[in-house]
Amino acid sequence: MLSIDGLSVSLNGRQLINNVTFTVPKGRITSIIGESGSGKSMTVSAILGLLPVHAQTSGAISLNDKNLVEMSPKDKVELRKMHFFTVFQDAANSFSPSTKMKHQLFIFTGHKQGHSKMEFYQKMRVILQDLDLTDDIMERYPFELSGGMLQRCMLACALYTEPTLLIADEPTSALDMLIQKDFIDLLKKLNDEKGTTILLITHDLDIAASVAHAVVVMKKGEVVETGQVSDVFDKPQHPYTKLLLENHF
Amino acid sequence: MIAKWIGKRVIMGTIVLIVVSFLSFFILHAAPGDPAAAYYGGNLQTLTTAEKERIAQAFGLDKPVLAQYAIWLREAITGNLGYSAKEGRAVSTILLEKLPNTLQLVGITLMILAIISTWFGLLAGMKEGSLLDRGLSIFSIASSAVPSFWLGILLMMIFSVQLGWFPSSGMSDVRGGGGIADRLHHIFLPVAVLVLSHVGIFARFLQDCVKSESKSYYVQVARANGVAEQEIRKNILRNAFIPYVNYVGVTIPSFFGGSIVVESLFGWSGLGQLLVKSVMVKDFPLLMGGVLIIGVVVVVSLFIIDVLMVVINPKLRRGVLRC
Ligand SMILES: Nc1ncnc2c1ncn2[C@@H]1O[C@H](COP(=O)(O)OP(=O)(O)OP(=O)(O)O)[C@@H](O)[C@H]1O
Ligand SMILES: [Mg+2]
Questions:
Q1: Is A15 helix (H, G, I), strand (E, B) or coil?
Q2: Ligand 1 pocket mutation, candidates A38, A200, A224, criterion most atoms within 8 A of CB
Q3: pLDDT tens-digit profile of A97-145?
Q4: Quick one: which of A32, B138, B291, B316 has the fewest CB in 10 Å?
Q5: In this predicted model, what pLDDT tens digit does every residue of A177-228 receive, in sequence order?
């Protein structure tokens, strides 16, 4: 479905991503793992078409056979609006501080799809309940909700818009341990029940091992190993992957 | 809840007024010169020491400064600010006559300033790197480097002396008839000076707020998810206004300082001009009254800004409604 082929990105003469190739198959959870600074988020920016303007890009990123690298800026906006949904690390700062949640949830969902406020409330209410969030969060401001609740609100938006690809860039790194697992379980459930394709970026090997079907291991801007989770975790090929696993378990 | 919030501010305001009046009282007393001089009239040279002492005694000027302050404060609370020997009228009467003129000057200035600086600040902030963006940055530095009395003299030279478009002094014209049009004609230059010397910094501040807000995390998240630009912009503006209003509030006291210069320069018969005059003639009660009433006006305007802050900032709003 999404395939990245020989992607390289350089910025101010520094090669940040080097010849990255991997695919994200439909209906699966693919996880990118790798240490801090290995270019995971940069890869996400490239997929979203949000690299800095002066970045130099080569290679191809294709979503259902359309090359995103060559798309016009307008088409890229459309793609982010209708086909992708991205959850970021810092849930507490992902919403504007002085606007009620109902308005913010609306502009992330119903507003994009041309729904009326009524349609939005009806649909969103059910989704929020599924995520153990009560109705009254609609009347709240972000600072009145916990990080875990806000991250679930983000997920609620993803559930609402039913994106072709859900990208989650370290969605649980800012949450405390107990809630981390809950959130990952929700992602798994979303994938199981709705067949949502998910690209999960994490540096937590436990998380990757527990929910992903396939993993992509990145190091210093390069992909060093890809494969099914069971293969990579049981029989790592690349010395870097071995090192990662040894240090972990 | 709200009562507690208001109560806290009233108490704070009262404390500020007492401290300000206390300090002014002592500074004025420490200044060289005889505080009773105003009462001697033209007889300063001919009065004997004994006579001077009798006058001082009659006005309580022989008592320790602290005791004098206590008397002044006690009377001030009851609304009696004393009597101006120079003007031959009660201080409170004079102040009430001048206060509206200053409020008019500062009020109109603030209104125009808010409109122009908001407009330019938003436009410049949203178009980073544009001509307007860079132009405003330069203008703001330039305008804050020009002293307002110098700007006042410059405008006076050009628009009243050279072109004769606006009067250089006073609040009304005998021929103008004293109507609203006449008032506006006279207030134009003083307001222009106050606006010009603040508008750059104000707009610049908002511009910076908008710029830094545009870079915040939630904006990137919204953009990454294809949220409509106009909705993103609404949020940027709403959040940028919070520090901006706060900043405007903090600078309000300096307006009354600025109005002292401008009022004296343009012969605008307000509190600023009054203060300058009463310093010259050492009119002690009038000076204290003037300081007090400017203090009251500043405290009240800060209170209004506080209320405004609560209205636009939900974090404060929730706090006030809960406490
Ligand atoms: N805007 C930028 N300009 C220049 N260099 C950047 C920029 N953003 C990231 N980088 C560099 O690109 C490299 C990859 O960064 P990236 O954020 O993709 O890492 P990451 O794998 O997501 O790390 P983390 O786990 O810490 O999020 C880093 O060396 C970083 O310094
Ligand atoms: Mg990252």
A1: strand
A2: A38
A3: 999 999 999 999 999 999 999 999 999 999 999 888 998 999 999 999 9
A4: B138
A5: 878 888 888 889 889 988 899 999 998 888 888 899 999 999 998 998 998 8
| B220, B225, B314 ranked by CB distance to A108: nearest | B225
First to last CA, chain A: 33
A interface test, pick of B218, B223, B225 with most A CB neighbours within 10 Å: B225
Residues 6+ apart with CB under 8 A from B204: B121, B136, B137, B140
Residue A99 DSSP one-character state = S
State the pairing for strand pair A29-33/A197-201.
parallel
Gyration radius from chain A CA atoms: 18
CB contact under 8 A, A81 and B225: yes
Closest residue in chain B to residue A110, using alpha carbons only: B227
pTM listed for this prediction: 0.84
pLDDT tens digit sequence for B255-292: 888 888 889 888 888 888 888 888 887 788 888 888 89
Q: How far, in Å, CA of A154 to CA of B108, rounded?
A: 46
**From CA B276, how far away is CA A194, in angstroms rounded?**
78
Q: Is the CB of A145 under 6 A from ligand 1?
A: no
Contact B286, B270 (CB under 8 A): no
Contacts of B48 (CB under 8 A, 6+ apart): none
Residue A39 in contact with ligand 1 by CB distance below 6 A: yes
The radius of gyration of chain B's CA atoms, rounded to the nearest angstrom, is 24
Q: Which of chain B's residues have a Cβ under 8 Å away from the Cβ of A141? A: 314-315, 318
ipTM metric? 0.92
Pairing of β A84-87 and β A56-63: unpaired
pLDDT at res. B40: 62
Q: Closest to B239 (Cβ–Cβ): which among A94, A97, A111? A: A97
